[in-house]
């Protein structure tokens, strides 16, 4: 790792795919096309990483789920029949309204895409292909909205596993489409990358269908009922309205980031996207999981006005989130380059692309814990009926993000955009926490600070161990082969885990109790029987 402190020489013109939105790591392959493809088709296919639009639309899933919680806990007090009737009304309401939105999106795709990514028009064929794929993928919004409603119902019934794995259906569908659908697209006069757009639709359908059996097991039976005046539906819509404004503001911020990145050197958009998705991995593993379970508990306490229990839940969720995300933050920083090289450095994604992506990952990783903490705090506001506060704060932090973008993009290029996002996320968390503290009273801020200090120390030690181990292995094996990259990353992660667990025990970090208890239960179940 020490020999990579200076960026490698400039690569050929074929650099990372230009994609206007964050894409999952499994979608990195869409940036490449078969060797020997004509130059124009290569540029188009690389540019068509627009399949990542599915990620933008999937944000709707969390928005809908969070609003359903508050309403369903209220309906649940009236009995299971009232709750299931509300479930039918919500699902049918979404089916009708989102279908209309999707239809409008398809009809006006040729106007929407140039607004989202104006720079695409400068490359022949790029804008047209993006518009075509956007039209194909727009129905994903309907599928993911219905999946979100089902997820919300299941979570209120304390069913977490199936809803948690449902989003993986998108990645599975994209992988399958890359092998099954994309190769046959040229026979129908379509770019191979268009097959990935169809994969997005299949993934959305999978997210919905995989949850249906669990929903029916909870006693749900679909009925063709629709009401735009039902109190439960109106309550959910009322909760969603300000939250939707906040979501829209967030997407505008993403569009601004995309626009600014498109003004930077070729490859900047992709470097940011790949780094962003890597940063999202620990958020998905830890932050989303903690936020989902916390949402159920917080909604229950809020419905019963059990404020002491609610505040204890918030405090522990934030501390446990730090326990998991702070070491992940420093591990990403310590192993950024070898991780990026292992996952992405293949084909046209060269050594310089890996280096530039790693630098963006450093900047994004700074805000990882804050990103996760925000996912815990925002639903608390929704559960308490204070939906306007997080929306207002989101506008403030978005303005801060844009200002920082303009200040930092000059000297730091794409790294400045990533760093601005991280700083804004930290500000978002601080404002959300402080306002909530003033609304409901102390939430264990001192305990949070003490725990954060111990966890940070343990995380630094773990990152140092990871860096030392990875550097040693890289000096011996290099970083040019897949086997060497696996060895470098694997040694770093293993060393970090060992050091972190040792430091946690030595520092007596109490947030580790649930983790060690879980490990003890697993060992008890899998160990030899007496």
UniProtKB/TrEMBL annotation:
<keyword id="KW-0573">Peptidoglycan synthesis</keyword>
<feature type="transmembrane region" description="Helical">
    <location>
        <begin position="482"/>
        <end position="507"/>
    </location>
</feature>
<dbReference type="GO" id="GO:0008360">
    <property type="term" value="P:regulation of cell shape"/>
</dbReference>
<dbReference type="GO" id="GO:0009252">
    <property type="term" value="P:peptidoglycan biosynthetic process"/>
</dbReference>
<feature type="transmembrane region" description="Helical">
    <location>
        <begin position="361"/>
        <end position="382"/>
    </location>
</feature>
<dbReference type="GO" id="GO:0071555">
    <property type="term" value="P:cell wall organization"/>
</dbReference>
<keyword id="KW-0812">Transmembrane</keyword>
<keyword id="KW-0813">Transport</keyword>
<feature type="transmembrane region" description="Helical">
    <location>
        <begin position="86"/>
        <end position="109"/>
    </location>
</feature>
<dbReference type="InterPro" id="IPR004268">
    <property type="entry name" value="MurJ"/>
</dbReference>
<feature type="transmembrane region" description="Helical">
    <location>
        <begin position="160"/>
        <end position="181"/>
    </location>
</feature>
<keyword id="KW-1133">Transmembrane helix</keyword>
<keyword id="KW-0133">Cell shape</keyword>
<feature type="transmembrane region" description="Helical">
    <location>
        <begin position="448"/>
        <end position="470"/>
    </location>
</feature>
<keyword id="KW-1003">Cell membrane</keyword>
<comment type="similarity">
    <text>Belongs to the MurJ/MviN family.</text>
</comment>
<comment type="pathway">
    <text>Cell wall biogenesis; peptidoglycan biosynthesis.</text>
</comment>
<feature type="transmembrane region" description="Helical">
    <location>
        <begin position="193"/>
        <end position="216"/>
    </location>
</feature>
<dbReference type="Pfam" id="PF03023">
    <property type="entry name" value="MurJ"/>
</dbReference>
<comment type="function">
    <text>Involved in peptidoglycan biosynthesis. Transports lipid-linked peptidoglycan precursors from the inner to the outer leaflet of the cytoplasmic membrane.</text>
</comment>
<feature type="transmembrane region" description="Helical">
    <location>
        <begin position="416"/>
        <end position="436"/>
    </location>
</feature>
<feature type="transmembrane region" description="Helical">
    <location>
        <begin position="236"/>
        <end position="261"/>
    </location>
</feature>
<dbReference type="GO" id="GO:0015648">
    <property type="term" value="F:lipid-linked peptidoglycan transporter activity"/>
</dbReference>
<dbReference type="InterPro" id="IPR051050">
    <property type="entry name" value="Lipid_II_flippase_MurJ/MviN"/>
</dbReference>
<keyword id="KW-0961">Cell wall biogenesis/degradation</keyword>
<feature type="transmembrane region" description="Helical">
    <location>
        <begin position="320"/>
        <end position="341"/>
    </location>
</feature>
<feature type="transmembrane region" description="Helical">
    <location>
        <begin position="129"/>
        <end position="153"/>
    </location>
</feature>
<feature type="transmembrane region" description="Helical">
    <location>
        <begin position="389"/>
        <end position="410"/>
    </location>
</feature>
<dbReference type="GO" id="GO:0034204">
    <property type="term" value="P:lipid translocation"/>
</dbReference>
<protein>
    <recommendedName>
        <fullName>Probable lipid II flippase MurJ</fullName>
    </recommendedName>
</protein>
<dbReference type="GO" id="GO:0005886">
    <property type="term" value="C:plasma membrane"/>
</dbReference>
<feature type="transmembrane region" description="Helical">
    <location>
        <begin position="281"/>
        <end position="299"/>
    </location>
</feature>
<keyword id="KW-0472">Membrane</keyword>
């Amino acid at each position: 790792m020490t020999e990579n402190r200076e960026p490698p020489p400039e690569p050929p013109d074929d650099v990372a795919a230009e994609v206007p939105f964050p894409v999952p790591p499994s979608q990195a392959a869409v940036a490449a096309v078969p060797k020997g493809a004509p130059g124009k088709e290569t540029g188009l296919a690389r540019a068509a990483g627009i399949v990542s639009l599915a990620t933008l639309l999937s944000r709707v899933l969390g928005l809908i789920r969070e609003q359903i919680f508050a309403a369903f806990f209220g309906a649940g007090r009236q009995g299971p029949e009232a709750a299931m009737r509300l479930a039918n009304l919500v699902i049918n309401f979404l089916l009708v309204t989102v279908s209309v939105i999707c239809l409008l999106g398809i009809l006006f795709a040729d106007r929407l895409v140039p607004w989202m990514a104006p720079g695409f028009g400068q490359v022949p064929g790029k804008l047209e292909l993006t518009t075509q794929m956007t039209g194909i993928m727009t129905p994903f919004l309907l599928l993911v909205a219905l999946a979100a409603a089902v997820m919300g119902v299941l979570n209120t019934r304390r069913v977490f596993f199936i809803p948690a794995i449902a989003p993986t259906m998108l990645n599975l569908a994209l992988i399958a489409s890359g092998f099954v659908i994309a190769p046959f697209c040229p026979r129908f006069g379509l770019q191979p990358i268009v097959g990935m757009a169809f994969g997005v639709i299949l993934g959305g359908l999978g997210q919905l269908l995989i949850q249906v059996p669990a929903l029916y097991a909870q006693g749900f039976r679909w009925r063709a009922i629709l009401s735009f005046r039902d109190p439960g539906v109106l309550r959910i819509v009322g909760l969603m309205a300000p939250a939707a404004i906040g979501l829209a503001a967030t997407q505008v911020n993403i569009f601004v980031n995309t626009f600014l990145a498109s003004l930077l050197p070729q490859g900047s958009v992709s470097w940011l996207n790949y780094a962003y998705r890597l940063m999202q991995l620990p958020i998905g593993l830890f932050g989303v999981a903690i936020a989902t379970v916390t949402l159920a508990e917080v909604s229950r306490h809020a419905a019963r006005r059990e404020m002491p229990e609610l505040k204890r839940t918030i405090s522990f969720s934030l501390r446990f989130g730090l326990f998991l995300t702070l070491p992940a933050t420093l591990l990403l920083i310590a192993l950024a380059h070898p991780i990026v090289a292992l996952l992405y450095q293949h084909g046209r994604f060269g050594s310089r692309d890996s280096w530039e992506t790693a630098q963006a990952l450093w900047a994004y990783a700074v805000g990882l814990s804050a990103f996760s903490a925000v996912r815990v705090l925002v639903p608390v506001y929704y559960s308490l009926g204070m939906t306007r506060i997080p929306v207002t704060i989101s506008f403030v932090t978005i303005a801060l993000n844009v200002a920082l973008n303009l200040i930092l993009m000059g000297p730091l290029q794409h790294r400045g955009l990533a760093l601005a996002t991280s700083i804004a996320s930290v500000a978002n968390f601080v404002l959300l926490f402080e306002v909530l503290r003033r609304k409901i009273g102390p939430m264990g801020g001192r305990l949070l600070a003490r725990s954060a200090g111990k966890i940070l120390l343990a995380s630094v030690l773990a990152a140092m161990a990871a860096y030392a181990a990875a550097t040693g292995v890289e000096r011996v094996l290099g970083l040019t082969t897949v086997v060497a990259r696996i060895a470098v990353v694997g040694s770093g992660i293993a060393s970090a885990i060992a050091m972190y667990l040792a430091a946690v025990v030595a520092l007596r970090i109490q947030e580790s109790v649930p983790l060690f208890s879980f490990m003890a239960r697993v060992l008890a179940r899998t160990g030899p029987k007496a």
